[in-house]
Fold:
Amino acid sequence: METTRLYIVRAEYAGDVSLHIFFSDGTSQTVDFKPFILAHPHPQYNRYIEPKNFKKFSIEHGNVVWGKNWDMVFPIEQLYRGIVA
Structure:
């Protein structure tokens, strides 16, 4: 049985600290990252609570990432479910 790797093909800013994420299987999900950032205070994450910084994401190797050194990156499975922990 062959399994297909799930990955992110595109993401769009959805306001405040949220993204609308499009996955390789054709589904999409809107994810609010604010609860994660507020619950995990850390200088590496804190800057992304500001929408102007949050908007500076990219898609690399099928993941949505922030920062040159991948300051923030989340498991695809969590993003697919619409929650980050």
Notes: DSSP finds four helices and six strands in the chain.
